[in-house]
Amino acid sequence: MTQTQNIISADSWTVIPPDVAFKEIDRSGFLHRGTGIPIEIRPFFQISDMVKGERRNIVLQFEGTPYEAYFSTTGSVERATPQARLFWMKDFTLVIQNAYPDHYSFYENAEDKKAKPYGLEIPNLYLQKDQETPGLYIVSFDDPRLAQAVEETDEADYQRRVQSKKNVKIREDKPKNKPDPSFKKGRKSWDRDENTGAEAMAKAEYRCEMDANHLTFISRKTGQNFVEAHHLIPISLQDQFDYSLDVTANIVSLCPNCHKKIHHARYEDQEQMITLLYQQRKDRLRTCGIEMDMQRLFHIYKSL
Ligand SMILES: [Zn+2]
Ligand SMILES: [Zn+2]
After folding, report:
1. Residues 207, 201: contact at Cβ < 8 Å?
2. Residue 124 pLDDT
């Protein structure tokens, strides 16, 4: 699988369509607050139409914290196209300096401005466009496409942990305190507790909640019909809620086929599933302090 035909590189920038761009962090990235945006890279940021003297604000979000930044254009009258630069504030320069202290001290002490830090790899700054908010970029020092792989591994690990629980105690619905996030590869994430997942499946009597007739096979671990745990409201949205999303009220038991379907089917088919599951869960969610309306849930799945 190669998708190299659309990759655009210019100077220290590379764009990987549709939503990722990265830049080598060189001397100016460590010591100054800005970097030039070559003309080939501007369409990615939708700034090809900027005129001289214009400024456009954006937000760089790192580990859940927003940092103000902006594009600005300068240029002499002789130049047909203005020069574009991306500027950030001192707070984000500190983020870069703290992430790579050895590089920073090298550049700070190097007398030759062209010198490269011998023996140190040049780091990259990745910017991923947020799908919902224009002008918001999730930044990290690791490739966000690898973060996707990490997410998939986490999911497999979670399902394996859920399967390994037997003799699960079933408790009543009640609000649960919101957990603290952890940071993986510069991204906020929330751990999911296998006991709660196992409890949700036991509560559903190990049936697929889309259709109780979806029998699969007997699990070696649980001795029951094999089902998987799915968070109806994705755990990645925990920040937007006052109480934990990792509660049985928000975890549905699905056969592997329905589970794949709710993640990967075309939107019309997802919407049918969400409608049914939402109707079954809305009151229980409210009992757990989680307010959600169906339109918002549709919107969430549309943007996944
Ligand atoms: Zn799922
Ligand atoms: Zn099913």
Report:
1. no
2. 94
